[in-house]
Design brief:
The chain is built from 6 helices and 19 strands. The chain is of the alpha+beta class. The strands form 6 sheets. A 5-stranded antiparallel β-sheet has the order 6-7-13-11-12. A 4-stranded mixed β-sheet has the order 1-2-5-3, with no helix packed on it. Strands 15-18-17-16 form a 4-stranded antiparallel β-sheet. The longest helix is centred in the last third of the chain and has 19 residues, at about 270-285. The protein is globular and about 50 Å long.
């Protein structure tokens, strides 16, 4: 590990924690994949800005949240992985708005809104990631998307500049934004409407129970694997193509919800990704629909 006050000649001086060749598998829901060339856990937004400004421009940067919705390939991740820890996990209430750090889990954001009597954010209870990741991919569930509630976001851009963008600037569409490569969402401002905390809590409980009943939450998985094509549900296409329970090595298509891939214990990331590609091929042959990955796949094969 590099010290907190010294660089290596090619790496900026930082106040946060900087680790070379950091194993990523323990941080990823699938529990597979290689190491990061550098893993940086910044002390605050200014520390992150200084790090990115001093990092060689040709070194890629990957933000990492809770490790869901991600396959890290077995050869590891080049450049720097930025992981937002406790300094970025705070949630506060400002009138009818909820201000969340980029590292705040979705459930923490929804719970803070509930306690303040702010409705409309309940669906974040079903998002298994951070506020920053949700902003980046326009995450959604149960009929709502981040684009429905976002006022704006504070970003640290790849060159170290700190900017605040209004939601419209992200040009949201289904599971997509125009957030620049290497930019890190360090804060998000969400809007809601006045509501009864008890009713909000009941809706959050309903979402939690539905997820528990229908999804393999206690398995090594990455969340929803494929985006829903227009007019279709991805899981239904996968099921109709005969892929429910399909295995490749120690990777499996979930029997419980077949838009989820599982690591049965010793699957490599290559196994998981290859199984996903096999599913895509069978769905295309059966239905003529080309499924698009929702899970991000990063790193060296």
């Amino acid at each position: 590990m590099l010290s907190q006050v010294e660089g290596d000649g090619n790496t900026p001086v930082v106040r946060g924690r900087l680790t070379e060749r950091a194993p990523l598998a323990p941080l990823i829901w699938f529990k597979s994949g290689g190491a990061a060339d550098l893993l940086f856990e910044p002390a605050d937004a200014d520390d992150l800005a200084a790090f990115l400004a001093g990092l060689a421009p040709d070194r890629p940067v990957l933000p990492l949240g809770l490790g869901s919705n991600l396959i890290v390939r077995d050869g590891g991740v080049p450049g720097a992985v930025v992981r937002l820890g406790k300094p970025f996990a705070r949630v506060s209430i400002e009138g009818g708005l909820v201000r969340a750090g980029g590292g705040a889990p979705g459930i923490a954001v929804a719970s803070a809104a509930r306690d303040a009597g702010i409705a409309g954010l309940e669906f974040l209870r079903g998002i298994p990631g951070t506020a920053g990741g949700a902003v980046r991919m326009n995450a959604g569930a149960y009929g709502r998307d981040v684009s429905d509630i976002l006022e704006g976001a504070t970003l640290v851009l790849r060159d170290g500049r700190i900017e605040t963008w209004e939601a419209a600037r992200l040009r949201y569409r289904y599971r997509h934004s125009v957030l620049p490569d290497g930019a890190v969402v360090v804060e998000a401002l969400f809007r809601g409407t006045p509501g009864d905390p008890a009713a909000i809590g009941a809706e959050m409980d309903r979402i939690a129970a539905e997820r528990e009943a229908s999804q393999p939450l206690r398995s090594r998985t990455g969340g929803s694997t494929f985006k829903n094509p227009p007019g279709h549900k991805a899981w239904a296409l996968v099921d109709a193509a005969g892929c429910r329970g399909l295995t490749l090595g120690h990777a499996q298509v979930s029997d419980k919800h077949c838009n989820f891939l599982l690591n049965l214990g010793d699957a490599t990331s290559a196994d998981i990704e290859a199984l996903g590609e096999q599913v895509r091929a069978q769905v295309l042959a059966e239905s003529g629909v080309s499924l698009e990955w929702e899970i991000q796949r990063v790193g060296r094969p």
